[in-house]
Amino acid sequence: MGHLTEDRTPGGPRLGGAAAFAGLVAHRFGVPAAILTAVDAAFPYLDALAGIAVNRVRSRDRTRFRNRYRSDGSREQTILSRAAVIPESGIRRAVTELPPGSAVLYAPVADELGGRDALPRPRGRGALAGAAPQGLIRRWDAAGRVSTHWSALALGRLAGLDFLSLSETEFPEGGGLDAPLVAVTRGRHGAVLRRSRFPAVEIPPSPGAEVDPTGAGDVFAAALFIGLWSAMPAERAARLAAAAAAISIESPGTEGIPTLEEANARLSS
Length: 269
Fold this sequence. Notes:
Number of helices: 6
Mean pLDDT: 94
Oligomer: single chain
Distance between the termini: 33 Å
Strand content: 15-25%
C-alpha cells in the first residue's frame, strides 16, 4: 500500500514509488500481488504493472519526486506534487478482505496512509504485516526538500508489525523500533538484520554494476518480506533480497527488477 509515483529523472519521467517496486518484486517472484494506491485518472504508467491488481483511490494529482544522487551515494529528494491520502477506512477494508494468511507490506512515500492508529494486520495463521516506513517519517519544506522526522505518531502506527525495513539514514536515534525483525539497509555496504533475542547479523552486499540506485531499498524490503512470508530463514531471505536489489540497480527505474530465478542465480554465483 502506498502511492505510485512519477519520478523525474535526467532520462525523463518514469514509474516510481515503493509500492510499484514491491508489487513488481512480488509479481516477478511468482506471488499474486495487489496494490492499493491513489493516483490521478491520467496516470500513464499502469501498463508496467500488468498482472498486478491495482486498486486506485481517486486523486486530482499524482505524487512526483525528483531524485539527485551525490558521489557518496546519498540522495537529495524533492517532492513536486502529492496525490490524495489513502483513507483509513479503505486501508482497513482492503486488509479485512484479504484471504487468511495473506501478507501486507505498507510502502508509503509521502505520508499518504490515512489515520492515526496502528496499521492493521491481515488475519489467519501465517499472515504477515510489515512496512518500509520511509513515507511515514518524511517531511518537506516549502520548496519540497524532503527530510526525515520521527514522531511518536509514526512509531505508534508501526506498533504490532512483524517486519520493518529502512535505511541506516532513516533509523531513529535511540531506537524505538520493536518489530520482531528490523532490516537496516546500508547501500553499497549491505544490510544489518536486527532480531528479537538474537545478535545483529551483517548481510554483505551483492555485487552489481550500478546504473540507477532508485528503488534498491524497496526491492530489498519486498524480497526479504516475501522470503519471510514463505518461511525462508531470515538470513537466507536477506541474502536473496540483496541479490535482487543488486540486479535491480543495473537498469533504470523498475526495468531491472528480477525474477526469483534470476535472484537465486545471482545469489549462487
